[in-house]
Backbone:
């Protein structure tokens, strides 16, 4: 009998994944990870991990599988939370869930599985993995899940071939409504539990309050830019560097309409939290200058400073999931790309240059944000990802 270690979080997805593995004949061992202990920053105000652990233990008891608990909160703080503070302090927007999977979940899962002499590790992610033979070499091919509305391959975009070598995703070919249905049928304690929201393992937080642990509030100007760009910032569509750069913004381009408490508390494309009313269209953050502590805003989804045609990823920040599909300098490839979770896949061309990778979209993209991950797919396969440079 093959042995598998599954990350059991107390949520319905990992619970049903554990059930499916047991039904398939595996010897299943559950692993619960404590990665965040400070409940003072969560909106609920209670100890989310303690409640999750209680539910996970009830699920393990129902399924008659052993459960182990590991405290990785110090490592999580070092690898994920400190990274978050550093990125926001630079005016960039990180994705902690992507880092959590790369640095914490799949690293610890694999180490624990080795200690337990397990053949596989598993999670409740909505993603698919298959072996693919390229000229005699077997690669792990990470693919979009059957439930495209719940597909979580984006969050797994930084995993390595080594981290994927023994991974199982039991929910790859099942849709969320069926997961809920199964959980109810077998009376799992997590059946009616709401899906987790907010920062991975931390929970739903008020971001400015969370960031104030290390980034003290600083009053600054909110500059509204007019609907029409009168600064002659026309793009040469043959100049990749210009095309992939955000428009240079200055105070003189708009007018001061309000104050904020710190430019680093915001992200490009953000609408809520500006506390400025009386506008004909919704206000969005279109630019952040943390050095001068200025927040630039504009009205409406179609604002000229909010939409871009291309982005750039520095060479050292490019991660290829499929080594056989690495582009060489001056090579190009038509792909589908997303720059945030749940964004519909966008048609684009990826272009490799000595300095890094350019992604040029067929249509303008709203809210491209430095620090976030761009992820590119070929057909159903996730072949690469990287941190947006600017």
Residues:
């Amino acid at each position: 009998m093959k042995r598998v270690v599954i990350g059991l979080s107390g949520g319905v997805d990992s619970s049903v994944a554990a059930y499916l593995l047991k039904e398939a004949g595996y010897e299943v061992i559950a692993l619960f990870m404590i990665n965040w202990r400070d409940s003072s920053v969560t909106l609920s105000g209670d100890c989310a991990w303690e409640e999750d652990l209680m539910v996970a233990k009830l699920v393990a008891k129902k399924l008659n599988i052993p459960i182990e608990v590991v405290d990785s909160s110090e490592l999580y703080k070092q690898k994920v939370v400190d990274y978050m503070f550093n990125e926001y302090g630079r005016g960039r927007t990180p994705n902690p869930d992507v880092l959590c999977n790369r640095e914490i979940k799949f690293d610890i899962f694999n180490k624990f599985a080795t200690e337990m002499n397990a053949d596989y590790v598993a999670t409740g992610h909505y993603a698919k993995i298959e072996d693919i033979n390229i000229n005699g070499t077997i690669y792990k091919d990470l693919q979009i899940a059957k439930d495209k509305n719940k597909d979580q391959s984006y969050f797994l975009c930084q995993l390595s071939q080594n981290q994927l070598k023994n991974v199982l995703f039991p929910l790859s070919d099942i849709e969320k409504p069926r997961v809920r249905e199964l959980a109810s049928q077998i009376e799992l304690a997590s059946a009616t539990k709401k899906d987790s929201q907010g920062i991975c393992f931390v929970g739903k937080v008020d971001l400015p309050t969370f960031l104030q642990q290390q980034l003290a509030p600083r009053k600054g100007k909110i500059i509204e830019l007019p609907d029409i760009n009168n600064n002659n910032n026309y793009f040469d569509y043959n100049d990749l560097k210009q095309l992939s750069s955000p428009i240079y913004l200055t105070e003189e381009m708009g007018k001061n309409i309000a104050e904020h408490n710190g430019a680093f508390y915001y992200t490009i494309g953000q609408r809520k939290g500006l506390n400025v009313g009386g506008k004909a269209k919704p206000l969005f953050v279109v630019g952040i200058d943390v050095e001068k502590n200025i927040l630039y805003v504009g009205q409406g989804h179609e604002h000229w400073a909010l939409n871009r045609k291309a982005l750039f990823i520095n060479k050292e920040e490019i991660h290829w999931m499929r080594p056989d599909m690495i582009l060489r300098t001056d090579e190009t490839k038509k792909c589908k790309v997303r720059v945030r979770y749940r964004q519909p896949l966008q048609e684009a061309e990826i272009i490799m240059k000595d300095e890094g990778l350019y992604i040029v979209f067929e249509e303008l993209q709203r809210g491209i944000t430095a620090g976030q991950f761009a992820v590119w797919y070929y057909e159903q396969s996730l072949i690469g990802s990287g941190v947006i440079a600017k």
